[in-house]
Amino acid sequence: MLNRALYKREMKGSIKLLLIFGAIITLYVSVIISMYDPELMKTLDSFAEAMPELMSAVGMKAGAGTLLGFMVSYLYGFILLMFPMLFCILRGNALIARYVDKGSMALLTAAPVKRLTIAFTQMSVLISGILLLVLYSTVLELVCAGSGFPGELDVKGLLWLNVGLLCLHLFIGSICFLASCLFSDTKYSIAFGAGIPIFMYVLQMLANVGGSAEKAKYFTFFTLFHPDSILAGEGSGIAGILILLACAAGFYALGIMIFHRKDLHI
Amino acid sequence: MSAIQIENLVCDYGGGKGVFDISFQVKRGEAFGFLGPNGAGKTTTIRHLMGFLRPRSGSCVIEGLDCWKERDKVQARLGYIPGEISFFEDMTGREFLKFITRYRGIGDRSRQEELLERFELDPGNRIKKMSKGMKQKLGIVAAFMHDPDILILDEPTSGLDPLMQSRFIDLVGEEKKKGKTILMSSHMFEEVERTCDRIGIIRKGKMVAVDAADALRERHTRTYTVTLADQASAEAFALDFGGRLSGLQVTVTARQSLEQIFMNYYGGEEHAEQGAV
User: Fold this and answer.
1) pLDDT exceeding 90 applies to what percent of chain A?
2) Is-contact B258 B217, C-beta < 8 A?
3) Predicted ipTM > 0.90
4) Residue A185: which of A74, A88, A102 has the closest Cα?
5) pLDDT tens for each residue of B57-92
6) SS (H, E, C) A14-54
7) Segments in chain A below pLDDT 70
8) Do residues A64 and A70 lie in contact, with contact meaning Cβ atoms separated by under 8 Å?
9) Three-state secondary structure readout of B211-236
10) Chain B residues with CB-CB distance to A115 below 8 A
11) pTM of the model
């Protein structure tokens, strides 16, 4: 099912992006966790009170008491959503659609390798990248919190939270992958693969602002990843994760089948 | 037994583009020349053989295997040079060949070295920086290095200088001697004439002629018998023009080149079209 030579080549192609996004995440996570300070919290809370719309649009709410609550407010609204999402968009498009568009897919299909294997391998590369980013973020959070504030972090809560985050990004990746398999033109692959997740994120920002715009949350899949519900152990939080995971699996399978059957003008 | 069999293949892109009800066969061990101008449908036909496109009507079969449904099995026996080669530009030539070797699961790499020497290609450069000719050579090495039974070559000599074109034609000749089946598309008459047993001519998506290369040539041959004044000039005439001498009469044969034959199939139509405009 997996072609090792192709997997290796494509993972090499992911390294640069993984390093860049890994570095950005390192910077933000370490700085933000080190900023956790009950005294400073009050300052941040005062920001949130002074301009609640702006702060809550990027998921930052006032009055996050615990360290994990603080991290949810300041990391899981923007940083840990946006950067893995950019990775999904860039790699998702490059793994299938760009090769078809440029014609170099002919190198891969003119060999005794099934198209199912090609698509499955490319999907594995995308999933591996997402997994590495979320895993790295988790380890980083554990290390930063553990060294800065020993014993203050709810480790089990954090792990559950990141399982949810992983499922969210697997789902975003599946949209990008599906678009990449569906369109033979990078123009459309990017329009859909990047357009849908970014549009959904904008809706999520709107919904966060509250008021009548809160209804927007019914139209964005980001609502399915709800850190507060996950941490509270509510059924709706777990259900959201499961829905994301099931849809992701469906989209990946659909993408592979479409690539298997499509005409390639290469 | 046919190695390659195309029956009633139709692929309509609309606007008169595509291929319409194409049928031909290539026998095992035969070299088939596929001639036609740009946009005639050569590449479209080849894409069907490669399993890139699903036939909307008709069928393509290679060695008894359906080119669409069993494309991975077909591909195990194929060597392919695309009409427009697009490589992974981030790699060097050597990295690319190594990748293809592993990707295809080829064990033996001796042939690769031999081909690189034959075409005087240094694969150490980045593909992005290679000239068109170098890329074409790299494509040739990649297509031949796993020693396939069947070669599908889409305008394989484009970008090569005359010396390398001639080396390529020698290579194709050697492969033919080894019993390989070859389908070579071209608008280069000479390379087809020199290498192919049979020739199919495609025009606006339709096959206009499929015949033995010799027969095609024969049909366009004219013979003249000239009577000369004396024996000495008759002998000299026969020598200079390659004629057959019998007494004072010399019989000479004028062969139209394949190019002229080709023009016969296309030329008339173009004039008619110009007339219509």
Assistant:
1) 73
2) yes
3) no
4) A102
5) 999 999 999 999 999 999 999 999 999 899 999 999
6) HHHHHHHHHHHHHHHHHHHHHCCCHHHHHHHHHHHHHCHHH
7) 40-42, 44, 58-65
8) yes
9) EEHHHHHHHCEEEEEEECCCHHHHHH
10) 71
11) 0.87
Asked if residue A241 lies in contact with residue A184, where contact means CB atoms within 8 angstroms, the answer is: no
CA distance B185 to B187: 7
CB B265 within 8 A of CB B201: yes
Q: Which chain A positions have a beta carbon within 8 Å of B100's beta carbon?
A: 107, 111
Tokens linked to A260: 């298997």
- Sign, CA dihedral B120-B126-B130-B136, equals positive
A88 contacts A169 by C-beta, under 8 angstroms: yes
Q: Which residues of B touch A13 (CB under 8 A)?
A: 90
CB-neighbour burial class of residue A77 (10 A; exposed 0-12, middle 13-18, buried 19+): buried
For residue A16, the Cα-to-chain-centroid distance in whole angstroms is 17
Which residues sit opposite B245 in a β-bridge? B250
Tens of pLDDT, residues A107-157: 999 999 999 999 999 999 999 999 999 999 999 999 999 998 888 889 999
Residue tagged 């013979």 (tokens)? B223
Looking from the CA of A161 toward its CB, the CA atoms found within 13 Å total 24
d(CA A78, CA A60): 9
Residue of B84, B90, B105 lying closest to A103 (CB–CB): B84
CA–CA distance, A183 with B6 (Å, rounded to integer): 29
C-alpha to C-alpha distance for B33 and A223, rounded to whole angstroms: 61
CA atoms within 13 A on the CB side of A131: 7
Residue of A nearest to B68 (CA): A261
Give the pLDDT confidence score for residue A35 in this predicted structure. Answer: 86
CA dist B73 → A115, A130, A205, B62 (Å): 12, 33, 51, 10
Q: Is B269 helix (H, G, I), strand (E, B) or coil?
A: helix
Largest Cα–Cα distance in chain A?
Answer: 64
- The set of residues, in sequence order, having a beta carbon less than 8 Å from that of A246 and lying 6+ positions away, is none
The amino acid present at A10, given as its one-letter code, is: E
